[in-house]
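question for whoever is on the cluster today: can someone run the full assembly for these? two chains, 906 residues total. i dont have access anymore since they changed the login thing
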Amino acid sequence: MNNKIALELRNITKRFGTKVVANKNVSLTLYKNEILSLLGENGSGKTTLMNMISGIYFPDEGEILIDGQPAVIASPKDAYRYKIGMIHQHFKLVDTFTAAENIILGNNEPYKLKVVNSRVKEIASKYGFDIDPQKKIHEMSVSEKQTVEIIKVLYRGADILILDEPTAVLTPQEIEKLFAVLRRMRNDGKAIIIITHKLNEVMEISDRVSVLRKGEYVGTVNTSEVSEKMLTEMMVGKKVDLKIDRVSVEIKKPLLEIRDLTVKSDVGTTSIKDVSFYIRGGEILGVAGITGCGQKELCEAIAGLRPIASGSIMHDGSSIVGMSTREIINRGISMSFIPEDRLGMGLAPSFSITDNMMLKTYGDGHGPFVDRKSARARASALIDKLSIVTPSTETPVRRLSGGNVQKILVGREIESGPNVIITAYPVRGLDINSSYQIYDILNEQKQKGVGILFVGEDLDVMLALCDKIMVLCHGEVMGVVHAAKTTKEEIGLMMTGSLDKSELKEYGKAKDSNLSEEEWKNAEKEMEE
Amino acid sequence: MSKIERREPLFHIVKNDAISFGKSLGIRIIAIFAGLIVVGILGMILIGENPFSIYSAMFDGAFIDVWTLLQNTALLLMFGIAVIPAFQMKFWNLGANGQVLVGCLASIACMKFLPVKFPQIQNWLLLLIMLVASIIVSCIWSVVPAIFKAFFNTNETLFTLMMNYIALTTVDYFVFTWDKTGSGTLGIVNLLNGQKGWMPDLGNKYLLPIIISIIMTAFMFVYMKFTKHGFEVALVGESVNTAKYVGINVKKVIIRTLLLGGIFCGILGFLYASCLSHTVNQQIGGLGFTAILVAWLANFDSVAMLFTSFFVVFLETGSKFISTKFQLNSTDYSNIVVGIIFFFIIACEFFIRFKIQINHQHQKTEKSEINAEKEGN
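^ ran it for u. tokens below:
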């Protein structure tokens, strides 16, 4: 390996306000011809550190050296001058422009698309990308958009590339492809930093790993000399059991049965098409799929937030189609959807914990007044039970950290004693400890006989936690597989639609259904009327 | 890149999420004083008066007639109370003017024609009919934009604003129709006709609006803070998605809340007709926009609005007196005074929401490191 230093950080410190220290005395060395993983839990300061290298933030203390020379990076433009390119987690592309137009945007060069197109193609073939420069961004898949982002920085001559959680939105196959490209770039002399918190990917792609914990630099190790377990311990600071248990529970009758469900999106396109499945009591059914393949619409349809186009939803043998959200809540169906901003649905950010506790129960009891007293008692009970870190029960939830916010949401839903839990991305953005706490809560509910629909992102987690996994692609069921008998690769192929198991076998109709075939037919007829 | 340039920003603007009540009050008071200083300096330059005599003129002017001051405060407060439930819901109701005006028009219509048709009518019955008529018409004015918002998601700001103009021209139409003299104004109704439809005197003609405004404030405080309805209103304002998610009928809440605002505006319109002006003209309801300012300054808190509405009335009355006292030809300087002080109050919100952090120089950094270590220990 060529041991020339590309980038060096010395004692970088960054504060936000007086209390928050995002990075404290971080030192880091990046060599040419290497892929360095930056590992750390949420809030450990990875993104802040990278933002300082790419000129979005300016360090309070410390210095940055590029090719051995002290560098001042005060803006993203400066970063480009130093040949640093960052690929953000959320893409920054103009949807209505083509790939080539996006690539030269802000580049101050003559607008000659032919030249640009050929140069883009040149870069693409050099590293093994697959891209059509004339395709518009809104027609692209997530992985294509990512490709555009990467080519954009390469086009500007970046030698140091920073990728912020590039794999979070990709399927296993796409991840493989991305890694092959990264390796080719490394061999071409580029220096690459990749931020991720998936340990198996760290082990697979990187040469060295640097670990941050709570803003402090823990250390750098050679990947070949460590194990996943050791990395976790570096990251968390203590020993952690990485195993997710799949508790086995006696199989019960189907609780929620859905047949031939079709749901439209906000703009009128079909989001969920002829989907049939059922959840038994004491079962966790996973839902896997690329972002935007209808998970949200499915959850909303079950919770009564979105009208369905056709099909039937049976809860405990009777139809809940057309019921109001309130009636569905009262039947014991709980839905918690953690959106990307984490606060959009299910919680009121500037309400206190107490008020959030009574969001679904404020209407209980007679009289015109709300009962804040009992809600406060429930809030403090929940704070104790889930060890939520908060100054008081009256603190607005937006002032709490992400993990604590999610514990309040999931905790409140479970406290209401549901018999069906629909939960989407319950561990989104949580650190390892909080995630495991949530898995434990779900397993506890499963043992109590609750039926759980778990919409997830991380296939490893789903394979370990769920009993069965339903795979969606463009709103259609590609098949339902037993988590213990399938592989990540198989699910990945199903997610992209390359493998359609539903052609061979009809899924989603329980043999011991609560309704007889005749009743199902009647229900169907009623729906048509 | 041999030359090292140190180009770091001079200060950072940091969001200040958890400011204490005392501190925010302090910032506001400093802002008012800063505004007064600018007002004083401008006074010296523009009208050549000593700043302190300007300040004392403001005080004298405001307190020259305490009852009027209190009554005006009460009126402004009532307008504010009528708009805050909608505002809390982030429904920007700019139509309080029109709602009060049409309410007043309805009351006046009853007052003018019912005693003619039914000369035997009891005064209390007439007053009751006037009140009900005012509330009904006022509610129509407020609920139409609410229905359109709830079902078609129309922009309520423009809609309520336009309803004001409809109210104004409607009043014009009726006044021209009713007025036989051709002057285009309606005189005091029933002045010579046994004062039918006039509120009985409580011994002090200013007292009734003041009492009603206090009752309204107390009601609204309890309604917003402790009732199920108030909880729903706050939740819809906070996040419509979350409100739907917990099973709240958002359409119903929007319409119900605007009806409540309509009721309050109706009461206010009735007060104008029966007790304050005994007539209807375009000037009635003119406080609606100032009330929006009052509501914002109070952060939609009904009790805080007691103070903000008093302050605004005090400022406007006091500054108007400046031009009287110093015998200025116009009220321009008075308007400047009001404008400058409002500017300072609104601008100081920035310092309440954000903190300015001057970047540490190198020496200071070492110091803060030591402090950080101390804190760590």
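summary bc i know u wont read the tokens: Chain A is about 30% helix and 25% strand. The domain at 5-236 of chain A is CATH 3.40.50.300 (Rossmann fold).
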